[in-house]
Design a protein that fits this description.
Shape: globular
Oligomer: single chain
Largest sheet: 2 strands, antiparallel
Number of domains: 2
Distance between the termini: 24 Å
């Protein structure tokens, strides 16, 4: 699994650890507070969405993606289990552009990669689904220059013989 090792050798093995590390290094406190407000109630609401994604949706997503490995149920069964999360997400996004309101938050940043994976399992099925609010929300990320030019920049598969890739590139 990818992880962050900072210049002091501290390891950040989980996505949320890396996100919080990155936010702690930012000099733009206004932007940081925009995506991860200091208000404990707001953070708890974001954390609830992230936990629901991590505990519930990811479990069924893995089974949907790899239904040939999880043969106890059909791919359609796993799809239906994922839909529990997607229906909730779709309702939420019917009220606002992002999970917490009209601005991007850590909750969106944490959840969207898994929805992207879900859509990619069977893009036609996803495109034809009833989740119009989710599709619109996902497009905000997939169509962004940041996502296409920075986040999804392709690197060769890592091998132990190659030099480490250091970010930011110098």
């Amino acid at each position: 699994m990818p992880q962050l090792v900072d210049m002091d050798g501290a390891r950040y093995p989980e996505s949320m650890d890396i996100i919080l590390w990155a936010l702690s290094k930012s000099n733009n406190r206004i932007k940081v507070n925009s995506v991860w407000p200091s208000d404990a109630c707001q953070r708890n609401k974001m954390s609830a969405w992230i936990r629901y994604n991590d505990v519930f949706f990811k479990k069924w997503l893995d089974r949907y993606k790899y239904a040939d490995r999880y043969t106890e149920f059909s791919e359609s069964y796993y799809f239906a289990q994922c839909e529990v999360f997607l229906r909730r997400l779709n309702r939420r996004l019917g009220l606002r552009s992002y999970l917490m309101g009209e601005k991007l938050s850590v909750a969106d940043i944490s959840v969207f990669p898994f929805v992207r994976q879900f859509a990619a399992v069977n893009q036609k099925r996803f495109d034809e689904s009833e989740y119009d609010n989710v599709k619109k929300w996902l497009s905000l990320f997939l169509d962004s220059a940041l996502f296409n030019n920075v986040v999804m920049k392709k690197y060769p598969m890592w091998t132990s013989e190659q030099e480490n890739v250091v970010f930011p590139a110098r």
